[in-house]
Amino acid sequence: MIRAILLLAALALAAATAAPPAARASPRIKDLVEIEGVRGNDLVGYGLVVGLAGTGDSIRNSPFTEEALANLLERLGVNVSGEAFRPQNVAAVIVTATLPAFARAGSRTDVTVSAIGDADSLLGGTLIMTPMNAADGEIYAVAQGPILAGGIAAQGDGAAEQIGVPTSGSIPGGARIEREIPFVFGEMQRLRLALREPDFTTALRIERAINGALGRPVARMGDAGTVALDLQAAGLGPAALIARIENLAIAPSTKARVVIDQRSGTIVLGADVKISRVAVAQGNLAIRVQETPLAVQPNPFADGESIVVPRTGIDIEENDQNRLALVEQNVTLADLVDGLNALGVGPRDIIDILKAIKAAGALHAEMIVQ
Description:
By secondary structure, the protein is α+β, with helices and mostly antiparallel strands. It is built from 8 helices and 23 strands.
């Protein structure tokens, strides 16, 4: 009994000293914004993958693979001019990567390798040294290493099976940075925070949270997607200022949305979705058409031919057990889900019901159909 009382007291003390649930659940500023100038840069390169078990490009259908391989061998001191070689363990690939912000020479980044010829699989292959260019045409990284291809394909005379995409793979840390982006964050004279989801209320909350934490008017909301920071008023450098404010908790304000994916039947409803008073009835009409053709034979010893007489059966069934349901004024998301489930409808029918409610003007949310 005493142990139970002590346990309850400890739980009560922990609950009293803990942060409020809303504060614990609120995301940080770094989760809601992008910092001006802090961004990655796309890299791309053309290379060769070797070491494939006969699953590479066929030279006849991919002549660029033969040309690239010949150039590579000549750079390595092997003269293949005029030689007729038909390797099947080589594949031409496009290599892509992202040069991270603040990446320094010598650091590494992940790369993605994708076949561009008729190779069947990149499983077990090794990417040969591939320069990677940015949009300005300069080389910023060099990629090389064994490829991790997760897919697999098998084929026989009567069947074929494929899991994943065997013609695409990745090399974790496969590219080494050779050149740095000429960008000095510490010399910036002004900073702007760009909201990933522009919203006036969220931008105002970010402004107030920053100014309250620093004790001076440092942040100023420009519009729904921008909050400007005054470095002179803050008295801090750009890096120190971002470190001071990026972990501040903010409760974002989002629009009421209903996202529908018709291909998979997925429905996502935001917590702020509201529905006005409306009546909903969901019908269930099933029509089945079945063909049972009948073969008619001629009489014995009679001249004639066998004919097939079409025979069609049509069955119409309507479920009249569903009733008209009344949705009250401004119901919550939980009430909406409970009401639709009470009608006994599936995801496909719920999609149609939500569209009809939206068309009736009773669904107060942005509907996104994918």
